[in-house]
C-alpha cells in the first residue's frame, strides 16, 4: 500500500515537471510577446522596446529563461507579472480560493445529484421515471455549461427579476451574497458532471444488480435497500471514481469561462487575461496550479480505488 | 403418504418476456421434497431446472411464475409478497450457486457477508454474529477460521469460496437448501469434498436438499429421488436407485448412457446425445424430445405424451408407456394409481 502510494506520487511529480517545461516553451512560441502587445500603439521606439525585453529577460534563449525561472521557482519565487510588476505568487494566491470553491462545489453538487439520479434510474429501470431521467441526463450532457449558465441567468432575471450580485464577496465576510453569487455558476459547472455520473451510475448499477454476488445477497434475505445502497452502489463506485477524475478536467476548464461570465475573481479570469497579454510568468504559474490540482485529484482517486476495492489493495489486478 | 411434503411444486409455469412474445421456460413442472430428503433435478443446460429453483425463491430477474403453485409447509409462495419471500430467503429457504468465484461480493470480507446474513433475520449483536460466523466457517471445514473470517473472497480458492457459500446458507438453519450446480465450476477432488460437506450438513441439521445438476454421477452419489427435466418439462421421476438401474424414459436412458465408465471404449468418441435442447421459443410439436429420440414413433411428433404413472413412486412421459395410468400432476412425488 505504501509502495502503491509512493509510485503514484512519483508519477505525479514527473507529470508536473513535463507540464511546466511544456507550457514554458509553448507560450514563447505563440506569436507576439508582452512588450509588443503593451507598446503596439504607443509609437515607442524599437530600441526602447528591446530595452524592456532585456529587462524581462525575453531576449535570452528559451532554455536560459527556463533555467532562471526554475532557479527562482524552487526558492518559491514564481517571478513578477510583466504588467503590474506584482509578484505572481501574490496575484495568484489572492485568486486561488475562488476557483477552488467553485470547482469543489461544482464537483460535489454534480456528484451528489448524479449519484441520486443514477440510483433512482437504476432501480426504476424501464419505467417512465427512468426514461425521463435519461432524457434529462442526455440534455445536460449535450448543452455546454456556459449556455446553461446563460439560460439560468436569463430565466431568473425574467421570471423572478433576480440576478446574482456583481461584486464577489468572501464567504467569511458576507455569506449570503457569496452564496447568491456562486449558486448559478456552481450549478452550471456541475450539470455536465451530474449527467455523466448519473448515466454511468445507472449502467454500472444495472450491471452489478444482475450479477451473481447480488443474487447471493438477495438469497440471504437482506432488505432490498441494503442490496442497492450497500452492495450494488459500492461495486459501482470504481467506475464512477474514474469518471470523476476526468470530470475534474472539464470543470477546471469550465471555470475559465464561467468566472469570466460571472465576474468571479478566480484563477480562471487571471489565466484568461494573462494569455491575452502574453504575461508568461502568470500563465505558467496558473497552468502549473491547474495541473497540480488535477494530478493531486488523480492520486487521491487512485488511493480511493484501493480503499474501496481490496483486490487493488493487495496488488491483485481488477478482473 | 407418511407425512406432508416440505415443499410441493404443482404444475409450475415460468414465463419470460422475449421480443417475440412471452415464452415458457418451465411448463407444468411438479415435484415434491420431503423434510430431510435429497431430491436431484437433472437435465441438460436449458432444461429449465435452474429457472424453476430461482422461481421458488423469487429470485428470477425478468421472468415470473405465470401459473402453478409452490407450497412450503402448506404456505402458498406463488403470489406471496416480496417482503414475505425475503423473510423466507435465508431462513427457511437457502440457496447456493454454480459459480462460487463470482457469488461473493468482492468488496466485503467473508465475515462481513456472514454477519450480514446472520443479522438479516434475527436481532444479534455484531460481536455475537462475528463469533457465530467463525463457528460456521469451522463447521464447513474452512481451515483457520479465525483468520479466514477477515479474508476477502479473492483470497480464497473456489472450493473455499463454495464452503463459505454453504456457511452463509446455514446461517438461517434452513429447512430446504437449494444447490444449483454447486460443483460444476470446481475441480473433481473439490467436487467430492463439497458433496460430502452437503451430505454432512444434511445429516446434522436435517436439512432437505434440492440438488440441481446435469451430472448423473452426482445424482447417483447424493440423491434419494431424481426428477429428470427436458425443455421445461418433467420427463421422468422416481427413486434414484431404480431410475438409474432401469430408466424408463428414452431421455433418461440417453443421459445415463452418456456417463463414461471404465468400460467405455477409449478409441471412440464419448457417447453423447446428438443435437441440443430446443429453446422455449422453438419447442417442437408433440414430444419435446422426439427430434433427438432414438425410439421416436410417428405419433411422437404429433402429440405430446402425458406423464404416465408406472410402479409406485415412478413416472415417465413417453408414448412407450401408453396404457399405463396417467400420473396426476398434483401429486407427482407420490403417483396415484387411478384404476
UniProtKB/TrEMBL annotation, chain A:
<protein>
    <submittedName>
        <fullName>ABC transporter permease</fullName>
    </submittedName>
</protein>
<keyword id="KW-1003">Cell membrane</keyword>
<dbReference type="GO" id="GO:0071916">
    <property type="term" value="F:dipeptide transmembrane transporter activity"/>
</dbReference>
<feature type="transmembrane region" description="Helical">
    <location>
        <begin position="135"/>
        <end position="162"/>
    </location>
</feature>
<comment type="similarity">
    <text>Belongs to the binding-protein-dependent transport system permease family.</text>
</comment>
<feature type="transmembrane region" description="Helical">
    <location>
        <begin position="238"/>
        <end position="262"/>
    </location>
</feature>
<feature type="transmembrane region" description="Helical">
    <location>
        <begin position="102"/>
        <end position="123"/>
    </location>
</feature>
<dbReference type="GO" id="GO:0005886">
    <property type="term" value="C:plasma membrane"/>
</dbReference>
<dbReference type="Pfam" id="PF00528">
    <property type="entry name" value="BPD_transp_1"/>
</dbReference>
<dbReference type="InterPro" id="IPR035906">
    <property type="entry name" value="MetI-like_sf"/>
</dbReference>
<feature type="domain" description="ABC transmembrane type-1">
    <location>
        <begin position="96"/>
        <end position="301"/>
    </location>
</feature>
<dbReference type="Pfam" id="PF19300">
    <property type="entry name" value="BPD_transp_1_N"/>
</dbReference>
<feature type="transmembrane region" description="Helical">
    <location>
        <begin position="282"/>
        <end position="308"/>
    </location>
</feature>
<keyword id="KW-1133">Transmembrane helix</keyword>
<dbReference type="InterPro" id="IPR045621">
    <property type="entry name" value="BPD_transp_1_N"/>
</dbReference>
<keyword id="KW-0813">Transport</keyword>
<keyword id="KW-0812">Transmembrane</keyword>
<dbReference type="InterPro" id="IPR000515">
    <property type="entry name" value="MetI-like"/>
</dbReference>
<keyword id="KW-0472">Membrane</keyword>
<feature type="transmembrane region" description="Helical">
    <location>
        <begin position="182"/>
        <end position="201"/>
    </location>
</feature>
<feature type="transmembrane region" description="Helical">
    <location>
        <begin position="9"/>
        <end position="30"/>
    </location>
</feature>
